[in-house]
Amino acid sequence: MSNSTKLAHSLLRQLIELGISDFVVSPGSRNAPLLIALGEAAQKQVIDLHTKIDERGAAFFALGISKASNNYVAVVCTSGTAAANYLPAALEALHGRSKLLIITADRPARLRKTGANQTTNQVNLFQGISTHDFSSDIDIEPLLKSGPVHLNVQFDEPLVSAEKTDWLAGLRVSPRSYDNQVNGKLESTTGVLVVGHDRAGYTVSEITEFADKLGWPVIAEDPLSFPQAVAHTALFLSDPKISEKLAAQNAVVIGRTTLSRSTNNFIKLAKNLIVIDPRTKDIDSKREGNLILSQLPNEVVSQKSDGSDWQIASDLTANIITELDWSEQLAIVNICKSIPTQSSLFIGSSRPVRDVEAFCKPRSGVQVLANRGLAGIDGNISTVFGIATEFESTYAILGDLTFLHDISALTNRTDQNVRIYVINNNGGGIFSTLSQAGVDNFESLFGTPHNLDLVKVCEGFQVKAKSVSNLDQLQAINNEPVKGLEVVIVEVPNREINAKILKDLTQRVSSAVRIGINLA
Questions:
Q1: Do residues 457 and 435 make contact, with C-beta atoms less than 8 angstroms apart?
Q2: At what angle do helices 495-516 and 328-338 cross, to 10 degrees?
Q3: What is the b/e burial string over 428-444, where b = at least 16 CB atoms within 10 angstroms of the residue's CB?
Q4: Picking from 51-65, 116-130, 425-439, which range would have the lowest pLDDT averaged per residue?
Q5: Residue 6, Cα to own-chain centre: how many angstroms?
Q6: What's the rounded mean pLDDT across residues 146-152?
Q7: Which end of the chain is flanked by fewer CB atoms within 10 Å, N or C?
Q8: Rounded to an integer, what distance in angstroms lies between the CA atom of residue 83 and that of residue 43?
Q9: Of 337, 352, 314, whose CA–CA distance to 471 is shortest?
């Protein structure tokens, strides 16, 4: 039996015994020893094997499974540019501390820098992620701690062995536990708790228990996971006077607050900033605060804060939101309200994730996921498909450019129950609400209209698609159970109109809340 085949067997047996059950692969030659062995394991129903022809999409698909399962998921490719296509998902996994196990096949080290075909330096290809470059057996277990890991495996010829062996005999699967570190004591007076969208890796229940001990108002970038959160804070805190009136003595921030400028400006007003995030030990080592904690405290001594002004501001803002006409925001509010419990929801970067934070009412019963590590719009469909392997039904809200960016994922479409809502404003709607709105050449540089019939685009991939352009049509689809893969194109007013809607609504919120909390 070839040494390459033996190495593949040894590596994969270790991973399977460590509880890694999902392997995402793309075809290639140099990774043949791994692919053949994985095929044998899948035939014996020892693992779940997922084949994807595009390495970039494969990595995001694996990332989605990892997010949903909280376990390491292996993604396996051949050498050369195939490995480089993992970079976007690798960076997302790094900054989000996701358990992505990157396995790149490689030529022997002696062939590097010799002009050998499909050979480049794959060692440390993913900066910030620990690379383990080897051509013989190594112990894998100590390498799997938290966050992504890169295994660069040198395979020498011959890659395929005619000799067969029952390398899976006597497997002893002992899954590793990846429990969060909850330890220590926090003593404070009154304040506000701010929960970033990725929760610094902590579970909803862990943060809910911590929040109950604090007894403070809660601002959640993901309000769909925290029913006790104050709704619509991103809207009413955009008024500096309201923000100053509500300013807290202490602000405890869990994770990163990456969405709302108004929330981040509010945090800066606190006299004392306490940051809780394991990433402050390595990835975010320059994070600033009066107190930096790498673990969520399990003991809390605090004074309950009066949240009456917060509730008044929230209620007044909610009243104004109910008066919305057909728009991106109204569509997203109704989608999020209609999603059944026990489902998963993936929220795309850019405008949708901000609209969920600002406009949706807090609720529970939905597993909310997003790529907030680096908040890119790439690989979102592939991530959704990966998440869907762990749920009976999965929903997603994506912008039109985000959808098109990963459109090739539809070539390997899922057979799970997935409904993707695409908010179509024909371009980059987020930019119409940012400082570059209205600059010279805005449309060609930022607006980037695609002018495509997205229903026909989907049908070209043999994917079911419908278009809706008003609330009644949307609600009719929301009321239908999801069956297989469905795409709903939500046609909304153009980007300029949407920017005006947001501006006018924010001004109305400001006026109403100022009066309500005695600022006018």
A1: no
A2: 70
A3: bbbbbeeeeeeeeebee
A4: 425-439
A5: 36
A6: 96
A7: C
A8: 26
A9: 337
